[in-house]
Records
---
Amino acid sequence: MKSFPCTLRFWTAVLMVGWWGALHVAPAAAALAPSRVSGATAIATARDADLLVVQRALEHKMVAQKLRDYGVSPDEARIRLAAMSDEDLHTLASASKGLPSGGDGLGALVTILIIILLVIVILKLLNKDIIVR
């Protein structure tokens, strides 16, 4: 404690008390989320469920790009979906369930790299040697 003069310690303490006091001035609010009736869904028929599955598959980047390559716009695809029979729509929905649900894996790769960097930084801070053989 001899490295910090008494006045510096005093003003640091005053600054910290003022800072903490300013942080606690803002009010906090909390509430419960509104509830919904369980079991109530917007999907009333099997056709609606199949249509929802196919629409989600069409939102995938690779599928949308392939449709554009074939010259089909997203609006045309929606119009053709609405005109399909129930059997054809069910077949298309069954085939599209195997598609990936989204993302291209870049987020997972970035997350893994950040974790590796954090481990390296922590090991360096602990004066541990990192040896890769």
---
Amino acid sequence: MTEVRQQLIRGFFDAIAAGNLPDEIVTPDMSFWSVTSGTSDRARFHGGVKMLAAIFKGTLAYVVDSLTCEDDRVAAEVRSHGTLPDGEPFDNNHVFLFRIRDGRIAQVAEYMNQFVVSEKIVPLMQAAMARPSA
């Protein structure tokens, strides 16, 4: 059971790095919370994943340093690395807490260095949201 949950969580990080969160790995009522954006439902989170992937040159890669599984919970220590549009490197450290239900992710909470995100990512996301849609 632990190995299945670890694969699910590693798949989650691969998916968000690619900018696409497949429906089959999250529950229909999946919720996401982070220190920088508060609570999001599945649709808002999916939109944020796509936008985040679009603002990096290449991809925002996630390196899973550790996974700890107990009952319906998984804790992940993760590092992210990417290159911003101006060529500046981006690095952050995260702790994700997941709740699993029926083999899919039902809840995610993300803790990270919010100062790095506020300084480097938030302005890029705000600019992307302000652009007229095609």
---
Amino acid sequence: MAMTDTTNTHHLRIFTLLAVLAWLPGCATLNKEECQLADWRLIGYQDGAAGKSATVLNEYREDCAEHAVVPDLDRYQAGRAEGLREYCKPDNGYRLGESGRGYSGICPAGLEEGFRTAYHKGREIYLARSAVKKTHAMIHQRHQVLQGLKEDKGVKLSELIADGLQSEQRVLILYEITELEQEMHSVEDEIAALEHKLANQQAHLDSLAHHAAR
């Protein structure tokens, strides 16, 4: 039981670390004190766990060269390899894809396949969810257009029953009302088509989510 608790605590710390590192700024600037006191293995681990490219080491070299400090390449690479083993877990790949973030192919060969497979599953859900949101927005926009047309029709109906109108004016207003009604029917057809599309998209998203939860 104690071993299980220890394992769970370790996993929680790793997931927390990954969450924090994922939101760190992309800038890798190091000042003089950081260069002089740097634990290059730890820096490498943090970069690997955050999924940063190995090219970030070039930025460290440039920063620390100004202070006559050379990064320890071996320690950095060893730490980064450890960090990548945490970053390249399938669960993290899935979360990365589901959040819509990109993947630059940094995982080593032994971890790449599992990570990329999970990433694509997560990204499929992200794309399906994005499609649902987009269609929702389109339906909302078309409803606003329809409401505007209804209000315009109401104005025209008020004008139609006004006193003192000549027959030609009434004919023109009736024609404008007919045009508005045709536009309304067209928008209503668009809304119906979009709602049908939305139902299919939602069913697809629900299916993906169901299989992902298994």
---
Amino acid sequence: MSSQIIIVEDERLVAQDIAQLLRDEGYTVSAIASDGKTAIQKIIEFLPDLVLLDIRIKGEIDGIEVAEHIQSFYAIPVIYLTAFSDVETLKRAQATNPMGYVLKPFRREQLLSSITIALSTFKKHKLVSEPEKPQPNYRLKSTVNYIHDHLHQNINLEILAGAIRMNPSYFCRVFQQEMGCSPYQYIIRQRIEKAKTLLKNRELAISDIALQCGFANHSHLDRHFLKIAGTTPKAYRTNF
């Protein structure tokens, strides 16, 4: 399956040119967004393998704020595409740990090589980190227990953070450091593990399993299951 990429760019012609270039190279362009709010919605919907992100975009949320959201909740690499290279912008961008920074106007080969390197580097990092299963220390033990007990419900980040007297931003950093992933990533992984267990019961409809694991619907479960387990719930059940 080809890598899925979301393009966040408010210049329509530029976005369309990039999309065509990516398709010509065999990539799947999942969506094009011109503002930060739409970008976040599309990232939630498609869970891409990479986000190409302009810094100055329409709306109240700029590209760096979109990258901060990605960093807090998802394991998705980001490459910035921008015409701005001032020191202050670079400092803000670097704080989000991007996998690349391509200045406009860019050459075709420059963009493609940046994408190839970003996807390869991120994949290697993921393979190294995934076998490790860190255990929470005393600060997060109650949080992890709460997550496991409420996988079927909507788990609110503010409630998790407030329960151990942390603000959400600091809580996300602490969780990432101690657990090796963001709170959102951890919740999704545990929901998928629960789904795997429930799929062994062939009398349960997959749509019901999705709801029991906290997913909005069957297709929402499918997307996350495929991303993490490398197969669909239906195929997993059949093979099992």
